[in-house]
């Protein structure tokens, strides 16, 4: 047994007071969970402490919460580990901080209202099969191989941890979000569904749909069941691209521009990115397509904002150098390997926030990009 302190963000609407923090001392084996700690505090100190839970085994999805700022399940987070995490940097006396999930209205203490932020969005993606024709006399028979692709998205327990951690949803509460989009892939990838193209068209054309995700990986870190919602969103995008669906915001072209530039140059050429994203089809200065002209004109405010915000500095608008010493060939090998084996790969950020500014302050050549292709 060990002593732990839980610092809980509380909100009791019936009191008429705003949210406040309260600390509870609990005494538990380190292998027990943060949820066990909360239930002990409720039992011994304050019966009004409210938390939603049922299975206590990471199955029902009820106990989503933030622990030390990280969204997850209270019943799947060991209290000993949460204590270590809270004290990694400072000696051992910090409490474990427990808050309600983010991006959702709080009903009471750790209980959030998931209706508008989660369930409405799940309904929004028509979460059931839409097969055509008469149903078979007996069950549908599906080749097991073709179901493997959607097994990951089927593992979702609807806990909302991914929604809680989603950075895009913070900026755009209308974003359909990681949980609902992972659910959408569960049906888009199902060979029995006959409305795949309509689903993809809808999700690509919705301004709060698949291209609203900023690829930040937070939902992957938060998901307690390994659903990796961001990966499901990327699969939806790829399928939409394969179907030739063009979204009004050029999200597909923007994504393809990333892929093309990294393949060609190894690092991201920030100057080429808007041109490749919005002015694809410009065959030469004398032959821009109508769509390209429209896209470029539409993108001008974004381009000016990018320059004004300092994301692209004037001194960077210079020839972009390829990677040295054969590294470029290694990047191409990664592409070749992925294509040959039909493997997925993602772009990961390399370096820490502020590296670019530090390099500029020290008078060094700023890194051309912090993105690199990693299989
Ligand atoms: S990767 Fe996309 S869906 Fe996932 S948390 Fe980030 S913005 Fe949200
Ligand atoms: S995708 Fe993961 S984090 Fe999101 S609701 Fe489903 S199980 Fe929870
Ligand atoms: S109580 Fe069921 S998932 Fe935590």
Structural key phrases:
five-stranded mixed beta sheet; alpha+beta; disordered C terminus; about 40% helix; binds FE2/S2 (inorganic) cluster; about 10% strand; about 375 residues; single chain
Describe the protein in words:
By secondary structure, the protein is an alpha+beta fold. It is built from 15 helices and nine strands. It has helices at residues 34-44, 79-86, 115-124, 144-154, 161-165, 167-171, 178-188, 196-205, 218-222, 229-242, 251-265, 272-278, 290-309, 327-340, 355-361; strands spanning 2-10, 20-28, 64-67, 70-73, 96-99, 106-108, 111-112, 346-349, 371-374. It has a five-stranded mixed sheet with strand order 2-1-5-3-4. Strands 6-7 form a two-stranded antiparallel sheet. A hairpin with a 2-residue loop joins strand 3 (64-67) and strand 4. Helix 3 runs parallel beside helix 7 and helix 11 packs across helix 14. The longest helix has 20 residues, at 290-309. The two termini are 44 Å apart. The relative contact order is 0.08. One iron/sulfur cluster binds next to helix 5 and helix 7.
